[in-house]
Write a structure and sequence with these properties.
CATH architecture of chain B: 3-Layer(aba) Sandwich
Structural class of chain A: alpha/beta
Number of helices of chain B: 8
Number of domains of chain B: 1
Number of helices of chain A: 9
Number of strands of chain B: 12
Radius of gyration of chain B: 18 Å
Low-confidence stretches of chain B: none
Strand content of chain B: 25-35%
Number of strands of chain A: 19
Distance between the termini of chain A: 55 Å
Shape of chain A: globular
CATH topology of chain B: Rossmann fold
Structural class of chain B: alpha/beta
Shape of chain B: globular
CATH class of chain B: Alpha Beta
Largest interface: A-B, 24 and 32 residues
Oligomer: heterodimer
Radius of gyration of chain A: 21 Å
Strand order of the largest sheet of chain B: 6-9-10-3-11-12
Distance between the termini of chain B: 15 Å
CATH superfamily of chain B: P-loop containing nucleotide triphosphate hydrolases
Strand order of the largest sheet of chain A: 2-1-5-7-9-11-13-15-17-19
Largest sheet of chain B: 6 strands, mixed
Helix content of chain A: 10-25%
Low-confidence stretches of chain A: none
Mean pLDDT of chain A: 95
């Protein structure tokens, strides 16, 4: 690609901002248990060389990270939060829960007594010995990846390692709560999850805040599903109003493995979640659902990239986004089917609902298919609320804001049926309801 | 006799097309009126204008409901004041179940009247006898509003809403179209249960058949945006035999 002068200027600016970001955090020291594993110096150099992502990069066409890049961040510190905040943030009341505050595990606020047999979980900083060779290799090469992956390694706060032993059907859900206390902190999280052959798990991650100040949660997650393993993975991003949230979830599936992902974005100022998966064995399935609820001044980007490398794999995804006045929501989805991946069955659907003329939604569904015998589809639509349905409800005495909220709720609510956990369904339903009541000014 | 509704010389248009061209109608409490007329005569427009559907421009005339200028109010306010429109084509609302929809509507109206709102349990008690009257059960309430309903189910659902909301004035827009005799009987049972002192019903219909089940006090013929003839129920039988084509503007007195 020819580098245009305009692009060059952008790149230089992005590099400069990366350097000043790195300089501001110069007193960083890697967690003691990871110092020999983390290529922090290489990662920092790679980050400064690449700079913050700019819209020149196709993956960032719709998402401008300049407000993030321009913010002066600090290294995370120990924070104090009230236990009640955890209750508000949590999706699954009965789950085994690990609470991270500003990226550091809080043993006081975590609830790990009912940890089921077959599950091992520990903060990454204390679990270097738990990593598989492949995970260790992944950690070492993280300096060579995209700039946000590099900065994640260069200034890693902590994260967690979770393993489920072979053949274990875990019935107690596991939940991670990541809280920030604001203060311009840049928190970098790295996570390694692996499910052994034939095991199952319900896992959820929640991102929340006690502050309306700026901060940054940058997380990189690696998930490995062994043969016939099954993971339900739910992610709720409900960060503070001035927060930046960037996340990558990389998943690898061996034959007969199933991944069920649910990505919910409600909070934050700029939030981008990238999910990518590689199906390495036959009869795998990658099922994704989720929503962005994007209000005034918010930007949410959900990107997916599903790679099919062998024959007979399945994928399915439905994302419904709701955008209120002054919000901007982005969906970018890609099915990448290699020539060997015959009989791939993959469907993708993105529907956007704009609640006001100043609401904005971008949708970029993509198929890249090299096999000749596949069933792949994608669809995208963007529209407003159905006027006839609105009138129908008003003709029954329901005021316009309530009718709009109910219709919108109806638009996304049935997605929640994809969640296996009733408590999570109810909590997300309530969160949707609250968001709508607020955005529509519904009178109590 | 208490006057509920008084429409005088009503002119209404959609975009550039005038549809109601000086329509007048008086409805008193306790009465059932049937408005009949050929396709395109303005029957549905009249219902829509009274219910406050956006998109209609009133260019002349007035509508008075219980002493207030009805045209001043938003659709939801009209409903809260006791006007109910039974839709010719009930609208599907995916993702919103009937119980949630109906309870929200009922509570919105109760709240507007300063009455206490009903919680889920109270609502189930409240709705039970209405369901029975219409040969429906609570399973029905769990379904998304009108989604996948048969024609008869949609109209029974409209009737259920009417019985629950208990309006002062019910406007039923072709509630009978497309119904088989069983469904027609059930819907009529609901409508007849609504009859009573202090209330009125306006049936908009294409067919005389409905009037075998719900006996009107007055029948009006709407043609080309005006009521051209009014009479008692025998007028409906006459129309069935003779058709609308022979009618000309003989009288506008209701």
């Amino acid at each position: 690609m020819a580098v245009l002068p305009k692009h060059k200027a952008q790149l230089n600016a992005a590099r400069k901002m990366a350097t000043s970001h790195a300089e501001a955090l110069a007193s960083y020291e890697a967690p003691r248990g990871l110092q020999s594993l983390l290529p922090t110096a290489d990662a920092r150099a790679a980050f400064e060389k690449a700079g913050f992502p700019t819209p020149v990069n196709e993956a960032w066409t719709f998402t401008n990270l300049a407000p993030l890049a321009k913010t002066n961040f600090t290294l995370p510190h120990k924070g104090q939060v009230n236990g009640a905040v955890i209750g508000e943030a949590k999706l699954v009341r009965d789950a085994v829960t690990l609470v991270f505050i500003n990226g550091q595990l809080s043993y006081d606020l975590s609830e790990m007594t009912s940890m089921p047999t077959g599950v091992t979980i520990a903060p990454l900083s204390q679990a270097a010995s738990m990593l598989t060779d492949a995970q260790e290799a992944e950690l070492k090469k993280s300096a060579t990846k995209e700039s946000l992956t590099a900065v994640n390694t260069a200034f890693l706060t902590d994260g967690y390692v979770l393993r489920v032993a072979e053949g274990q059907n875990i019935t107690t859900p596991v939940e991670l709560v990541f809280l920030s206390t604001g203060d311009q902190q840049a928190v970098n999280l790295k996570t390694f999850i692996s499910l052994g052959k034939g095991s199952t798990l319900e896992l959820s991650e929640v991102f929340h805040s006690t502050s309306d100040e700026a901060y940054w949660h940058n997380s990189v997650t690696h998930i490995d599903l062994a043969e016939n393993a099954q993971l339900h993975f739910t992610r709720k991003q409900d960060e503070g109003t001035a927060a930046f949230h960037t996340a990558e979830v990389h998943t690898t599936l061996q034959r007969d493995a199933s991944f069920y992902g649910f990505l919910a974005n409600l909070g934050g100022k700029i939030a981008r979640t990238l999910f990518d998966s590689t199906s390495k064995g036959a009869n795998t399935s990658v099922n994704l659902a989720g929503f962005n609820l994007t209000g005034n001044g918010q930007h949410h980007n959900t990107s997916t990239n599903t790679l099919h490398t062998v024959a007979h794999t399945n994928a399915n995804q439905t994302f419904r986004n709701v955008v209120a006045a002054g919000g901007h929501s982005v969906f970018m989805g890609k099915y990448h089917v290699l020539a060997e991946a015959q009989q791939t069955d993959a469907a993708m659907l993105n529907q956007n609902l704009l609640l006001a003329p100043s609401a904005k939604a971008d949708s970029k569904p993509e198929l890249e298919i090299y096999a000749d015998d596949v069933k792949c589809s994608h669809g995208a639509s963007t529209g407003k609320l159905d006027e006839t349905a609105l009138f129908y409800m008003r003709a029954r005495g329901i005021d316009t804001p309530t009718a709009m909220a109910m219709l919108t709720e109806g638009f996304i609510d049935d997605l929640l049926n994809a969640l296996p956990n009733k408590q999570a369904r109810e909590r997300l339903h309530d969160a949707i309801h609250r968001w709508l009541s607020k955005s529509m000014n519904v009178k109590g | 006799m208490t006057e509920l509704l008084n429409i005088e010389n009503l002119h209404a248009r959609v975009e550039e097309k005038e549809i109601l061209k000086g329509l007048s109608l008086k409805v008193n409490a306790g009465e059932v009126h049937a408005i009949m007329g050929p396709n395109g005569s303005g029957k549905s427009t009249l219902a829509s204008v009274l219910a406050g559907k956006p998109g209609y421009e009133i260019t002349e005339g007035s509508v008075n409901f219980q002493g207030e200028d009805l045209l001043e109010f938003e659709a939801e306010e009209r409903a809260q004041k006791g006007i109910f429109l039974g839709f010719q084509y009930p609208v599907e609302i995916p993702g919103v179940n009937s119980m949630y929809f109906l309870r929200t509507a009922l509570n919105a109206q109760r709240k507007a009247r300063g009455e206490e709102e009903l919680d889920g349990f109270d609502f189930m008690d409240f709705i039970q006898d209405k369901l029975e009257l219409l040969d429906m059960n609570t399973e029905f309430l769990k379904r998304p509003v009108n989604v996948g309903f048969s024609g008869g189910e949609k109209k029974r659902h409209e009737t259920l809403q009417m019985c629950a909301l208990n309006p002062t004035l019910a406007l039923l827009d072709e509630t009978d179209s497309g119904l088989d005799i069983d469904a027609l009987q059930i819907v009529s049972r609901g409508v007849n249960a609504m009859r009573g002192e202090g209330k009125a019903i306006v049936l908009i219909t294409h067919y005389q058949r409905l009037l075998d089940y719900i006996e009107p006090d007055f029948v009006h013929v709407l043609k080309d945006g005006q009521i051209i003839k009014s009479g008692d129920k025998t007028l409906a039988t006459e129309l069935e035999k003779e058709g609308y084509s022979g009618l000309t503007n003989e009288t506008t007195a209701a």
